[in-house]
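ESCALATION

Customer reports they have been waiting on this structure for their group meeting. Please prioritize. Original submission:
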Amino acid sequence: MTKTVDRPGSERGERRREQLVAVGVDLLAEGGWPAVTTRAVAERATANVGLIHYHFGGVGNLHRAIAERAGDLVINPVIDELLEATTEQAALDTLRGLLPSSGSTRASRLAVELVVGAMRDSNLGAVMRDQMRQSRAQAADRLATLRPHWPASRCAGVATLVVALLDGLMLHLVLDEDLPTEEALAAIEELVGDRDEAPVPS
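Update from on-call: job pushed to the front of the queue and completed.
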């Protein structure tokens, strides 16, 4: 019988749940979704399989929790750093530093698995859709601050392009580690050119 302190909502229960999700993310990065089974998660976490069902109600909810955490790990750090940029040039410089040198990084592998999972499972697709919508909204809000004269539609459009650009480059890197990312960013930099760079209003 599960102790009261292990129940969902209890402090110990939440720690245990977080551990199971973290283990699931590790397995996802190592072997993709086929590797994320209740048995594999239980064995890696030295837990009983029944505990996973107790906390998540089944593998579907476990996968959803793992997708949410993986999305946070892959998307949030990148968006947070981009939102700190005070000009378009600063954003490009930040983007240049954020892109991995190859597609073999943990974040790249997680990004690919998130897309694969979203295509195969509507519940995982809903997780990805919500996270990407939130990222685009945050980027659009930041652009509205940087460029107050831009209409909302333009901010939304540019934000969509920026997020799609980052996602696309990361996915291409997984398939081709020789992808000329520097050339791509240099081309964007030329398009931005020496246009008036508006600093963040103080």
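Sent to customer with the following note: Residues 59-84 form the longest helix (26 residues).
Escalation resolved.
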